[in-house]
Amino acid sequence: MKTDYIYNIPAGRELDALIAEHVMMYKDIHWNDQHTDCYYWENNIKMGADTIVPIYSRNMMYAWEVVEKMGPYKLEIVRRGIVGSSEIETNHKATFWHGMMGFPVVAETAPLAICRAALLTMTYKLE
After folding, report:
1. How many CB atoms lie within 10 A of CB 123?
2. Nearest Cα to Cα of residue 94 among 119, 69, 71
3. Which residues, other chains included, contact 31 with Cβ-Cβ below 8 Å and sequence gap of 6+?
4. What is the CATH number of the domain that holds 11?
5. What is the pLDDT of residue 80?
6. How far does the chain reach from its first CA to its final CA, in angstroms?
7. Which of 48, 111, 121, 127 could disulfide-pair with 63, CB 3.0 to 4.6 Å?
8. What is the distance between the alpha carbons of residues 13 and 102, in angstroms, rounded to a whole number?
């Protein structure tokens, strides 16, 4: 997976599926017929509605599950205000650190920043 792609992937089901596969380590991710939602299957069998991939990139409760799964990596998250033309824009910067190494990611929301940072970290396996 290319770094630029991860830095720019929007919040949504595609990112949620990537988190489920590469961070949460769910196996057998499958999309429904309309390609609007995804499930993790067990032994190639959809087990029911409880196997729907959570909305990690849009809900802080589920994003926190990603933080917990990242265990040995230390999360640093900062909410930043940027003064624009006449408004203050808010964004979030998230980094999973392993020692002195990490990939800082800036996004519009904390769940999106956490998901992008986790995906980058797991893609490049900081050690």
Report:
1. 17
2. 119
3. 17, 37, 38
4. 3.30.2120.10
5. 73
6. 18
7. 111
8. 25
Residue numbers of the domain that contains 37: 3-124
In the numeric block, the tokens 């991860």 are attached to 6
pLDDT at 14: 94
Query: Over the stretch 44-81, which tens digit does the pLDDT of each residue have?
Result: 666 665 678 999 999 999 999 999 999 889 999 888 76
Residues of the chain with pLDDT under 50: 127
**Calpha distance 27→118 (Å, rounded):** 18
The structural domain count of the chain equals 1
Return d(Cα 115, Cα 77) in angstroms, integer. 12
Polymer length of the chain: 127
Task: Give Cα 98 to chain centroid, integer Å.
Answer: 17
Stated as kind and residue range, the H or E segment containing 79 is strand 74-83
The structure tokens listed for 85 are: 């033309």
Residue 41 three-state SS = coil
Model pLDDT, residue 94: 92
